[in-house]
Amino acid sequence: MISVEEALARILAMVSRLDAETVTLRQAANRVLAADAVARLNQPPFAASAMDGYAIHNDDHHPGRKLRVIGEAGAGHAFSGRIGTGEAARIFTGAPIPEGANRVVLQEDVNRDADCIILGQRLEKSDHIRPLGQDFKLGDRLRAPQRLRPADLSLLASMNLPEVEVACRPQVAILSTGDELVMPGEAPRADQIIASNAFALAAMAEEAGAEVRLLPLARDNEDSLRFAFSLAAGADVIVTSGGASVGDHDLVGKVARDLGLEQNFWKVAMRPGKPLMAGRLGSSVMLGLPGNPVSAIVCGHLFMLPLLAHLQGLQGRHAPRKARLAAAVEGNGPRTHYMRAELAEGEYGPIITPMGRQDSALLSILTKANALLIRPISDGPRAAGEMAEYLPI
Ligand code: AMP
Ligand code: MG
User: Is residue 302 within 8 Å of 272, Cβ to Cβ?
Assistant: First the structure.
């Protein structure tokens, strides 16, 4: 059995980043920038007033000075004249500073008298000018790769970039298998349960930028699985859940191998989720997840999400974080244990409390967890107050 780190390394080594495509800014939210975006102008493109007031020459910046107002500059309405000493222009926020002026006095710091202003007794130090290029300069870059957040889109827009190059969205096909499964809303027979795994996996994949195809439920027979795999053709990633252990009805591996799966590994030294399988199937990477809902979702966090990040050119591995144990934990056995846990902010930093029940069939417990406490292989017992590693979920 290989370790989780080795399994992840092997999964990431199976793929290279996807191609890039050009999309409009309105399509770019949450996409991963694939090439540096380069500003096409300075922002602001001209020295601009930061306040409503009067543009004047520094030499006139003295209490009581009387200046003649010779024009007006508004946002989008530059004043084309020149301000000499003894002169001022009415100016509004965002307007270009007129030639000759190098300071704005606030409107509340002057008295207006017909076409003149008289500067008040208390004047401010600040010139209230936003210098040309103070936000960014022509040629400045937003670096790739990074996931575009809302503010990034405004930055790209103000760089005068209507389109950006982003990584193509990974195409993910999700295949659930089991004779006992029916879809939510159906009336299960007494020996059936509701298929739930695909809903979490699909939501996780979409949040990570993927386009998801939810395939119809496959049954535990070769024909049904073969048909389901045929519907997954062309996907970058095929995620299966169920049918991957060693039971008589666990046919996912067999059918996938018959279809040409180059199996890379099967079984990882972890809990929950030992019967994890991965390999290449045609142009796809296949991740065969266990059917237990918690195992499937934990494996989704540990392997599917890094794979999707990697496909989009992002760093796949997430370094564990550290928190203080709220309670003692027992020594761990030969598999890394990802304990469902609650992370909270304590007086001296984050505190982590493993849930009382760790059965991998308990979705109701998983939904209360916000972290996976990592118990390394053969780690001894740990006392409350010791530091431990975790992954946020
Ligand atoms: P398997 O990996 O097929 O042996 O399934 C392990 C356990 O997970 C069994 O109790 C299955 O009934 C359950 N299971 C399998 N697939 C799903 C699914 N899609 N949703 C909910 N439970 C599942
Ligand atoms: Mg099964």
Answer: no
The answer to whether the CB of 172 falls within 8 A of the CB of 212 is yes
Q: Is residue 194 located within the same domain as residue 149?
A: no
Whose alpha carbon is nearest atom 18 of ligand 1? 195
Domain assignment of residue 252, given as a range: 4-17+169-311
Question: Per-residue pLDDT tens for 284-311?
Answer: 999 999 999 999 999 999 999 999 999 9
The answer to whether residues 262 and 157 belong to one domain is no
Number of domains in the chain: 4
Q: Domain check: are 173 and 76 in the same one?
A: no
Q: How far is ligand 2, taken at its centre, from the CA of residue 159, in Å? A: 53
Burial of 290 (0-12, 13-18, 19+ CB in 10 A): buried
Rounded Cα distance between 82 and 65, Å, is: 19
Using only the alpha carbons of the chain, give its radius of gyration. 31
Going from the Cα of 214 to the center of ligand 1, the distance in angstroms, rounded, reads: 16
Centre of ligand 2 from the C-alpha of residue 73, in Å: 73
Task: State yes or no: pLDDT of 316 exceeds 90.
Answer: no
pLDDT digits (tens, 9 = 90+) for 341-380: 999 999 999 999 999 999 989 999 999 999 999 999 999 9
- 44-58, 233-247, 374-388: lowest mean pLDDT where? 233-247
- CATH number of the structural domain spanning residue 153: 3.90.105.10
Q: What is the pTM of this model?
A: 0.93
In a domain, 22, yes or no: no
Shared domain check, 181 and 243: yes
